[in-house]
Amino acid sequence: MTEQPCVDLALTDEILERYPLEEPSLIQVLQDVQRAYNYLPCDVLIKVGEALGVPAAKVFSVSTFYKAFALDPQGETIVKVCTGTACHIRGAGQLVEELQRELGIGADETTEDLKFTVKTVNCVGACAMAPVMIVGEKYWGGAKPARVSKYLGTGGGDAN
Amino acid sequence: MRIESRDQFTALHEAARKARAEHRQQILVCCGTGCLASGAKEVAEAFAEQVADRGLDAEVGLFVKSTGCHGFCERGPLVVIQPSGVLYTRVKAKSVAEIIDTTVIGGEVITRLLYKNPVDGERIEDYSEIPFYKNQVRVAMRNIGRIDPTDIEDAIAEGAYSGLARALFELTPDEVLEEVRVSGQRGRGGAGFNTARKWASCKAAPGDRRFVLCNGDEGDPGAFKDRSIMEGDPHSVLEGMIIGAYAVGANEGYIYVRDEYPLAVVNLTIAIAEARKRGLLGDDIMGSGFNFDIKISRGGGAFICGESSALMRSLEGKVGEPRAKYVHSTEKGLYDLPTVLNNVETWAGIGAIIERGGQWFASMGTEKSKGTKAFSLVGKVKNTGLIELPMGTTLRQIIYDIGGGVANDRPFKAVQTGGPSGGCVPEELLDLPVDYEKLTEAGSMMGSGGMIVMDDRTCMVDVARYFLAFLTEESCGKCTPCREGLKQMLHIYDRLIGGDGREGDIEAIERLARGMQLGSLCELGKSAPNPVLSTLRYFRAEYEAHIHDRACPAGICRELTAYEIIEEGCDGCHACFKACPVDAIEGVIKELHVIHQDACISCGACFDVCPTEAIRTLPKSRLEKAEVV
Amino acid sequence: MNMIYKVSVERCIACGKCELACAFAHGSEGRPSKTRINIHRRGPELGTPIVCFQCDDAACVAVCPTEALVRNADTGAVDMARSRCISCRMCVAACPFGNMLWDDTYDCVQKCDLCGGDPRCVPFCPTGAIAWVPADLAAKPPEPLDREALEIGGGA
Amino acid sequence: MTTLTVNGRRVTVPDDATILDATRAAGVDVPTLCHFDGLEPWGGCRLCVVDMSQEGWDEDWFKMVTACNHPVAEGMRVVTHSERVLATRQVVIDLLLARCPETPLIQRIAAEHGIEKTSYEPNPEPTDCILCGLCTRVCDHIGVSAIASVNRGWGREIAPPFHGEPPDCIGCLACAEICPTDYIEFTDGHVTRTIWNREFEMLRDPVTGQAVITTAQAEYFAERSGVPKAYFETSDSSKRLAMAKTFAALAVKE
Asked: Best interface-test mutation with C: which of D193, D232, D246, D254 has the largest number of C CBs within 10 A?
């Protein structure tokens, strides 16, 4: 694990207030933590485990099992390339390659300046517009490798 | 206002209907995920602004609403004007004023925005005349695209909760169960288990506390019907669940939704809040004395959580690992208590079944598969989108009549159904009527209704490998055959597409596939070999070409495929030059272009953009031989 | 009738028959090292039989994480359910008298189960140092043993 | 009681028995890896698959199930060594051998199934961990859940939280002792014990100086069970000795 910056635990308190303090809330709490911090900081996970009465090992287990969670800081903008079947046969692979050329990172990696994280996701259910690339919150349907830099430029602005 | 009796509900229903009828014209803007991505939000806002600014509400009785997915995602943003039924496709915010002036006020149609039939190029005015819509029969999706999913009154006006009112005030729980039994409805999540039998088993299980769950963890790549239902008509899901809870005697419900479906979560959350406010959820529903409430649980991003026992573990806040189901979850499910788990589409159909009767539902479909089924028709087909059809419709009708045929008029090769648990159905089976049994016999399965059309530019070995890679990533890793077997199977496929296939590979694949089918713990592992076995069954020659000839007949597998420009065909348009990501193409405008094989990565970008089809593929092995000579 | 396992230390001659009987009763091998009753030998023909007291408020029961140790209502013994034991040995550590025994051949805990209400060691004791008696007789002090009259030689 | 047949032989077992219990009662050997009698069945390794037919099913209709966790039923027919059962077990053990090519236990079971060398791609980083889950399950039973499975699918492994020293571990060694392949490493000394890279102080018998259990273990169990911590501080042999002496002192003097 890379070294983690100090985090504001007050945010965690706010999140914990939204749910009953019991094990079934764990995944919901972690979802909110992931959104608030952009990843799951170690200190937060320990605090969440204590609050919900879930052993640290189980919290870690759940954090690593589900794909929605990241244990390292993520880029400001998350770039998701859908690799569902429809996107696959319509060329999602080329989008990932183009991103590799454009940003120098592969799937599940983050640029050094923490600007972008590239992820491949298994079908976002927008198959009719395949291939789909999501930059921040913005969906790009019928995405073309040649336009990747355009998507990234626009997306970077949109996401903030 | 809380509804405290059936009369109050009926009064609200009538009032809502009347209020809707007063609007002489309606503009329905599709705001499903697909259309939103294409800018539907801006279009809807522009309409609302125009209506407000120009006081059109009073003047022409105009009413604008954002609806759920109309299904025709590829053509979005979609705008339908009622009552004329004019459908405009790919509408931009800047065309809004023109639409209002010309169509709404002027009564004229704007031809440019009409749907153009890809088959004959004809523009079609009326929504219901478009082949994509004409052939559909909508049950689960009955209100999608017609209602504003965030407005419960709009839903009630269109009949939402009428089935619930009938169930609560006219039928006993046993009679509800009987109605569902008569309908013959089977689970829409994939396996096709009889709904009524599932409910009866839960109802019979001992204990006071039981649960009703909705599986909205639509993980099959290529399927998005559940997303559209949750986004476009969340009330149909709630209504179904309340009726189910009433039938089995449950008071607590959960909807498990993929976190990748943010709009579905938002619309469901609004719908639940509205339903509670109206007394349609919570204590003493509609004054009937029946209590039931629903909570939403967002999934963490794991395909395996679509499996029932894994989903229940996930709801418990645990890792989504399946358990053996030798004791059914209807008896020992969530927290080891009796539980009914149905798919989104299953629940969405229940309200209609109770309202219109089980007989009506059973009158559609085939002998063993009753009613209608939603599909997402995607891949290399002209009209992609979401459809609902009676069971028994043939693949040919779906792909050609509704889908308009294969995109770019390329030859049809196969249609993949059932996601990673399904298989590829070849051309010779196009007249197969689609139902649970027929698809299973063909080596595929219904799954969650994804239909991915593949043309001749699809390599079946690559498709099988794609699903293996998907499943390798999604296997929970609990049981040996799935965890280790997928990894090893993927390894063999990597060799196949990498040009390192060996004699005996096909037999090794078959042996391993059999072991996984028989030995795996849950359905993910048991059905994981389906894409492998179905492609082997129908496209064995393609495998053999990869092994014996080191060739990919479809020209997809990069290690085996080279691209070259056909001299006579190239008109020097320079499109390939611009598309090439690695600058492997040389040529100036209006002159013959050439691909440098040493730099080419065989990505196929040039092939896809070439307007004159002057680029062809050939096996790399032939290229190498040529160079040696 | 409520029976109780009574040990009269003063009568024990450390002959070891109880140990053998126990080992035989609990396994086909009958190795004395597998016995659940142990005689602490403190001199020629002087021994102290040590065996589970089946304590009322038993430390082993309290400490067991899987509820594998349960009181048998019929015999009064604390029985060990092999099907629930996870071999964590916490009972061995917790028993204040050292009466939970670890069997490293089978990696499991052994303890006196009163042979289901008919302790096999009792009939083999030549001196009545161990006895299975009605509870109301248990408080009666043991008869002194006339060691001179014994014909058994050797003992240990 | 429930009566069923195992390979044609009738056996009668308690109603809550599993097929594995029934095969044992019938004296038939069914191989297992992830099963331990004291833990609830898990059904992960898939080595104990058998063919099973229920009463009322077609004569030749069999379903393959895991013996360890499938309940018995009246009139059930179990076949433990049909051709397809053996073929499936072979695939399973072959795959495990590819994962753990150097693990003696796996090599032995593979050999018993006629496999000397895996037919799959051997793991480039051989491990002894077969992911049977026994360690995490026993740890859950101890009540501390100090370790758990992390990641999923092929990347699954057993690890303490954050791959660091497990904060909840009490050093009881239950995980290491239950591990069928001795994959979990530990060092046990008179003064300290180390497992999962965490060092534990040992309680030592005041008389013999012999290490008893870890201080953490004693504290955890004392708090949880209400048993005085002092009970844990002496070895069982010392406790027997002390008891013998006490008894001798109390004996009625002749």
From this structure: D232
